[in-house]
Fold:
Amino acid sequence: MALRNIVVEGDEILRKTCREVGEVTDRIRETLDDMVDTMHEAMGVGLAAPQIGIMRRMFVAEPEPGGKIYYFVNPEITYREGSVEGEEGCLSVPGYFGIVDRPEKITIKGLDRDGNHQEYTFEGFEARVMCHEYDHLDGILYKDKAKEMFDESQVGYEE
Ligand code: NI
Structure:
C-alpha cells in the first residue's frame, strides 16, 4: 500500500469521463487500497480514482471516520429521492467549501473490493458523499453544482 498524489483542480484529468473497470483484479485492489491510504492521510471522507490520476470508474468512501469503508467499482446510482442542501469540500479543491443540493436518499449499486455485486441505500450525509464521489467519475466537481462557494479563511471553517 502506498500514498498517491492527489490531483488538484486545474488539471484536465479531473474533467474527463472515466472508463469502466473490466474485472476487479489484484492490481485494481491495490489501487483501491492506495486510495484508502491516501484518503486517510488527507483526512477525507471519500476519494475517486481520477483524483489520483486513474481514469477508471471507482471510488472509496468512509463517511464516518473510523467507520465502514465502502468500495465502489463501476457504480451506478439507480434511485434518487428528495433534495437537501449541505456543505461540501473536496480534496481536489483545497481551501474551499460550498453549499450543494443533493438527493436526501439514493440507491447505488456496483462491485466491491472482491468483485462482488453490492447494493446500498444511503441517506443524508452518506448519500451526499456517494453522489459527490460518483460525480468525479464523470468529470464533475461539486463547485459546478454549488449555490455558494466559500474560502475557508472567510469563515474560519475548520474541518
Ligand atoms: Ni471530491
In short: Residues 90-92, 132, 136 surround nickel (II) ion (CB under 6 Å).
